Amino acid sequence: MAIPSSTKSDKPMSNVPASVADVSAAKTQTKFRWKKVIELGYIESEAGNAANVENEEPVCFHCGKIANESESSKLSKCARCQVASYCSRECQVSNWKGGDGKVGHKFSCAAYKRVGDDMMIVFGDDKDSARQDILSRIRFYAYPYAVHKSQSTGRGLLFVQSDSSLAVLSLPTPILSNGRRMTKQRSVLLHWLTMQEFGSEVCMDDFELASVRNELKEAVETYDKKVEVPVLMRFRCGHVAVGIAPLVPDFKLCTVLGNEYGQGDGALQLNIDDM
Q: For residue 70, what is the enclosing H or E element?
């Protein structure tokens, strides 16, 4: 799915203060504006993270026990999301709070409700929120990279692609809806592309993406580089979206951060579960 380019997998922003990472996207005056969403219907590989979710027996989200290993011989589900399963009340309470470096279920419950037991996002509003959650998660890496590239190559778009499905990538933790850990590292690959590069490289690789050319062109020509960035997102499942995202952190901070890891002509690879 990647266009020809060198990649960079170094973990950036090691010296960014923790207070910076607490900046909320809600503080910006702009909002996400999605211009076009299409489903290309790619076939999910059997090697994908969610390939066997329906065939594997669910386990406790906290301790990993299967039903016949629990005291009650069954797993109970979270009343809110109806996805996360637990072998005991104690496991559910512990998992809800989190700790020891683990994200508590109270922070991921809504995301699991969105993907359901079958690891699929059905409704358009849920897909919008899933994309926005992904972009918000990588914003301190992706947007400074985009600002740095735009200053050297001119107006263009941030191409975000992943060999994970939208549902898999949108989860805050690498745990599937059956409670089992994902077998494959989740990552995104970022490119900054001009419209000419989009036509000559991306559309040559996947001609179906030409169907979003007009919306991309409009976004690239009209966005305010001080507060926005045009985005093209493509996932393994065939979900494709074109939009304009709010620039958070702000342009000044993005410029400073971009100088740290935006050097060179290559792409930027982010390993989601290492962030």
A: none
